[in-house]
């Protein structure tokens, strides 16, 4: 075929090498690019090398490399025909000046794949620049003009205004020193920098000055560049070639590592790529070949394919292959040299690998036992008997086997043999790990990545063999973490990812057991999952995952991001284990808040024992959390690792890190202080600015801001798009609420601990929380969990201001953010949305510790506290007191104990019986045994005091009325009750209300007698510690002034010797020593 078979349409490019025309192939209409290269002025050696290069490049097939379709020569010139791509990246730069980072990242991933393919085939481009990068249909990037630079002695234009400028050349090239493939990687870094910034890192009109800058000056990076992008460029733009980021580590860098979705897309693209299909497979001739040769379908078919041949020794003469005394391994570290490939002599593996590149070919291999035996044979050679006799040739064939298995797994072609292949891979990996050789890190990383791919294919379909795989993997992981000095970051990452994948599958499987659908696991699967969890709890896995975090954190502290993704996978694995154990515990144990138990007449209500408070999530989970918390508090490196996991914004690791921190806060009161960046020696009464920049707490607020931008279609982008932003908001706000509640429980009463002392930060942080529920339209018809969580976070932070010793402007900032009373009232009336992280049957539960409406009630309390008398009147007018009592009595809202305390200022003297239920024997025992926030002895104290504040309100309001018997005798006692209650102000500020209360006092006293309130209050004394008896004793003294109350109290044991002694002990403790 010659030029006569093409229509030459128009000139599209020109250089010293010749001219490029747009053409069209006759009869087919295919548009092509035709490059004419003149022979004039070239030596015989140049022409000989050019012919060799054309033959090599003809066989290169890659989606991101311009494909050579044809070539021919005449006495005067060569013509190379390639596919035609319309635009140059250089033209995009001229028009747009710079590109957003997510577009640069998409281009980078494609260029990295193209360069890796070239370098794998021992070809150095040597002329990387925007003009040689074309953009085809679908924004597919195509690399062109490689292989000709030296042979053609070209001086193409680098910048149209400056000819011959070495803008994109590596320092070793401009200094005319020996170079290898890493020169292309420097050029890649310069191109990506220019795409983002708008100009190369070194730019000047003087060639000599430019060379001096390239060789000596450091690269300056813009502030708006992400950490991953900056790390990637720093790796590429290293002036020392040996220290430059290179293969295979480059492929695993977070900035260019492919996601599973991207990989799936490329596999599907490969499946539709006709040029790569084997002729024999495509024509269905496998059966005929098998009949004639007696061999397997896939092997026989592959021998009739025509894959790219291995490079011969002559290939080393190609102009772009570096010549000289340096060895091939030095020229192309990370790639097998042509001589090595030739010596392996395994043509069957070559053909199997070629066919495995398509889905159709992979499926043929996957159904052929003989072919699989051939593929697995190199792995089996790494038996313990032959471990110390491995050769370079063994490594080459093993790499090839792993590549084939990876292709089969990516195509889903392993089918029913997945367990057998997993066993082979795990045996091979265990044997290689035992060698403790850093030279084999790439084999280990590849093996682990295939194991993960196979595990992903299995999903939650866990069989009995899954447990065997788990035991083997856990043992290997233990060895890798213990000997991390010998292993690269990629090995730690991939092994940890396998652990996370298996535990995530177990977690998902256990959660499916609550479903009645076909997705629910069988009893055999359920037993296998329990076995895995039992083993994980006893094999030291949590300690190994914590050590992985510490190792990653130490690497991050030193300035390297190589271990960051390993930290992300460690967090994901840790949380999957905790969640799976809690899911199993929740499945086997009834889970109810104290008030739920009281009103459902459940077994916990009927069988209460005076025992230590048990963990809500089970003792097994508590032990795991204890180990993680201990590692977090002891190791700064672990804290740094988790901080960067949050900063990465990778959703699975992000959610896992937040959940882990929530559990650690609840387990140890020191953790919230660490998250806020508070000094460990700081007295609780000393108020300082907390939550400053670079603290974990500040990152949580940044995450909420990021979630808000994801919800806004005008500000969100594909790079940062969240799959489930509502879940991230829910968990982030729960963490903020838990931090605030823990700080308050330790006596730290100031929102400055979390909001800093900066009014700007205070406004920004409170506003971003309020934003989560203020703009959600669904809140009008149902109470969304993430909105309820945001209200809880805001209420919890504002509660820190109660009793604060330092004045702040928090209240002025917060009041406009709190919904109006009528809006909060409507929220309390509507039903919660069905389904949350604890299951569809727990609509009233926000978390293990919080009810769905606790935040709403907490904001009501804040509005009352800062809204003044007007707020009280508005709430009373809206019927809020009766609504709250109704919700309590009908178990529709305030299901956690913590929500009860907030009702004390909002109800009058009605529904007394419902209120006194809250301090009944049964409920106080439930509260005492409750291990969540608001439980234990402090919870009993708060519950009793809250109810007393409600029921004593009329007594306090009229305590100065002369006509009542308690007017003078109990003023001092009334002062105790008056603390924290608005009742004492009523007589002074609102005479009409005080008069109305006074008129109804007789009726109210009768109600209290009917429900037996005096005896109930007396009974409460037995549940409270001596130091907490102030309010109950004051209320008893208030009631004793009324004869009927005194009679009932005596009848209930007021004068019992033990009770008298307890009350007198309280009196003596208040008087103090004489």
UniProtKB/TrEMBL annotation:
E.C. code: 2.7.11.1
Domain of life according to the entry: Eukaryota
Cell compartment(s), UniProt: Cytoplasm, Cytoskeleton
GO CC terms, sorted: cytoplasm; cytoskeleton
Stored SUPFAM superfamilies: Protein kinase-like (PK-like)
Biased composition (Polar residues): 287-299
Disordered: annotated segments: 280-315
Binding annotation for ATP: 39
Catalytic reaction list: L-threonyl-[protein] + ATP = O-phospho-L-threonyl-[protein] + ADP + H(+); L-seryl-[protein] + ATP = O-phospho-L-seryl-[protein] + ADP + H(+)
GO molecular function (one): ATP binding
PANTHER family found in the cross-reference section: PROTEIN KINASE RELATED, SERINE_THREONINE-PROTEIN KINASE 36
Protein name: non-specific serine/threonine protein kinase
UniProt xrefs under Pfam families: Pkinase (PF00069)
Keywords: ATP-binding, Cytoplasm, Cytoskeleton, Kinase, Nucleotide-binding, Serine/threonine-protein kinase, Transferase
């Amino acid at each position: 075929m010659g030029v006569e078979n093409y229509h030459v349409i128009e000139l599209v490019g020109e250089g010293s090498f010749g001219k490029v025309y747009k053409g069209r192939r006759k009869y087919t209409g295919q548009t092509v690019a035709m490059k004419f290269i003149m022979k004039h002025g070239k030596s015989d050696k140049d022409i000989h090398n050019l012919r060799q290069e054309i033959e090599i490049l003809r066989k290169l097939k890659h989606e991101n490399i311009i494909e050579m379709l044809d070539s021919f020569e005449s006495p005067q010139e060569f013509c190379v025909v390639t596919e035609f791509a319309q635009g140059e990246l250089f033209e995009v730069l001229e028009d747009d000046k710079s590109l957003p980072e997510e577009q640069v990242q998409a281009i980078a991933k494609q260029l990295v794949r193209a360069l890796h393919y070239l370098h794998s085939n021992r070809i150095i481009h040597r002329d990387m620049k925007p003009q040689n990068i074309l953009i085809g249909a679908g924004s597919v990037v195509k690399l062109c003009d490689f292989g000709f630079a030296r042979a053609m002695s070209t001086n193409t234009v680098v910048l149209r205004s400056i000819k011959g400028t070495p803008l994109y050349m590596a320092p070793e090239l401009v200094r005319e020193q020996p170079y290898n493939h890493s020169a292309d990687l420097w050029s890649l870094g310069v191109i990506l920098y220019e795409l983002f910034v708008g100009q190369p890192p070194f730019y000047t009109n003087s060639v000599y000055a430019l060379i001096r800058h390239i060789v000596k000056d450091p690269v300056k990076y813009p502030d708006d560049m992400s950490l991953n992008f900056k790390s990637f460029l720093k790796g590429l733009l290293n002036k020392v070639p040996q220290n430059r980021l290179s293969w295979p580590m480059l492929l695993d860098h977070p900035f260019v590592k492919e996601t599973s979705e991207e990989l799936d897309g490329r596999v599907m693209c490969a499946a539709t790529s006709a040029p790569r299909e084997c002729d024999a497979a495509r024509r269905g001739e496998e059966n005929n070949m098998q009949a004639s040769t007696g061999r397997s379908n896939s092997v026989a078919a592959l021998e009739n394919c025509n894959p790219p041949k291995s490079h011969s020794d002559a290939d080393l003469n190609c102009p772009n292959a570096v010549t000289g005394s340096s060895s091939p391994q030095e020229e192309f570290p990370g790639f097998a040299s042509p001589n090595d490939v030739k010596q392996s002599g395994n043509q069957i593996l070559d053909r199997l690998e070629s066919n495995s590149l398509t889905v159709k070919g992979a499926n043929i291999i996957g159904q052929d036992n003989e072919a699989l035996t051939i593929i697995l044979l190199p792995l089996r050679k790494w038996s313990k008997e032959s471990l110390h006799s491995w050769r370079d040739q063994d490594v080459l064939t093993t790499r090839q086997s792993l590549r084939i298995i990876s292709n089969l797994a990516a195509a889903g072609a392993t089918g029913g043999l997945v367990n057998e292949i997993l066993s082979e891979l795990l045996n091979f990996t265990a044997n290689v790990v035992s060698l403790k050789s850093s030279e084999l890190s790439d084999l280990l990383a590849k093996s682990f990545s295939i194991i993960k791919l196979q595990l992903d294919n299995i999903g939650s379909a866990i069989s009995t063999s899954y447990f065997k795989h788990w035991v083997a993997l856990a043992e290997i992981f233990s060895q890798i973490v213990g000997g991390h000095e010998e292993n690269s970051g990629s090995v730690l990452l991939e092994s940890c990812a396998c652990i996370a994948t298996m535990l995530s599958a177990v977690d998902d499987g256990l959660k499916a057991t609550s479903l009645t659908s076909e997705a629910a696991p069988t009893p055999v699967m359920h037993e296998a999952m329990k076995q895995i969890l039992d083993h994980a709890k006893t094999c030291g896995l949590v300690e190994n995952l914590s050590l992985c975090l510490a190792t990653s954190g130490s690497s991050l502290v030193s300035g390297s991001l190589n271990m960051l993704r390993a930290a992300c996978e460690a967090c994901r694995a840790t949380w999957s284990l905790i969640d799976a154990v809690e899911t199993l515990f929740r499945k086997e144990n009834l889970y109810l808040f104290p008030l739920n138990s009281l009103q459902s007449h459940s077994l916990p209500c009927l069988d209460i024992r005076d025992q230590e408070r048990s963990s809500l999530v089970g003792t097994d989970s508590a032990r795991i959390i204890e180990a993680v918390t201990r590692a977090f508090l002891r190791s700064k490196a672990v804290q740094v690792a988790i901080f960067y996991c949050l900063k990465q914004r990778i959703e699975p690791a992000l959610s896992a890190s937040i959940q882990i921190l929530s559990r650690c806060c609840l387990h140890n009161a020191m953790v919230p202080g660490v998250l806020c960046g508070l000094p460990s020696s700081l007295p609780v009464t000393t108020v300082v600015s907390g939550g400053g920049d670079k603290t974990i707490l500040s990152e949580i607020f940044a995450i909420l801001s990021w979630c808000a931008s994801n919800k806004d279609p005008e500000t969100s982008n594909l790079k940062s798009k969240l799959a489930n932003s509502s879940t991230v908001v829910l968990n982030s706000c729960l963490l903020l609420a838990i931090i605030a509640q823990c700080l308050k429980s330790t006596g730290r009463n100031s929102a400055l601990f979390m909001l800093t002392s900066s009014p700007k930060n205070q406004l920004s942080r409170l506003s971003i929380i309020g934003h989560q529920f203020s703009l959600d339209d669904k809140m009008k018809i149902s109470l969304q969990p993430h909105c309820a969580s945001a209200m809880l976070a805001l209420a919890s932070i504002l509660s820190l201001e109660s009793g604060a010793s330092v004045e702040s402007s928090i209240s002025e900032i917060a009041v406009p953010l709190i919904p109006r009373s009528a809006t909060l009232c409507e929220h309390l009336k509507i039903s919660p949305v069905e389904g949350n992280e604890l299951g569809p049957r727990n609509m009233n539960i926000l978390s293990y510790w919080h009810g769905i409406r606790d935040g709403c009630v907490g904001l009501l309390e804040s509005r009352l506290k800062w809204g003044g008398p007007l707020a009280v009147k508005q709430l009373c007018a809206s019927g809020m007191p009766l609504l709250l009592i109704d919700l309590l009595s009908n178990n529709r809202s305030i299901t956690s104990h913590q929500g009860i305390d907030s009702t004390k200022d909002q109800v009058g003297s009605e529904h007394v019986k419902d209120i006194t239920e809250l301090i009944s024997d049964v409920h106080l025992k439930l509260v005492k045994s409750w291990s969540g926030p608001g439980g234990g002895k402090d919870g009993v104290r708060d519950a009793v005091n809250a109810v007393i504040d409600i029921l004593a309100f009329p007594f306090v309001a009229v305590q100065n009325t002369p006509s009542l018997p308690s007017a003078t005798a109990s003023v001092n006692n009334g002062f105790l009750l008056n603390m924290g209650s608005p009742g004492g102000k009523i007589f002074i500020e609102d005479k009409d209300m005080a008069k109305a209360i006074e008129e109804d006092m007789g009726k109210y006293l009768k109600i209290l007698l009917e429900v037996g309130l005096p005896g109930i209050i007396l009974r409460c004394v037995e549940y409270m510690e001596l130091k907490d008896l102030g309010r109950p004793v004051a209320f008893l003294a208030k009631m004793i002034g009324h004869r009927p109350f005194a009679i009932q109290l005596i009848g209930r044991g007021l004068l019992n010797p033990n009770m008298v002694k307890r009350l007198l002990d309280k009196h003596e403790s208040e008087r103090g020593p004489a």
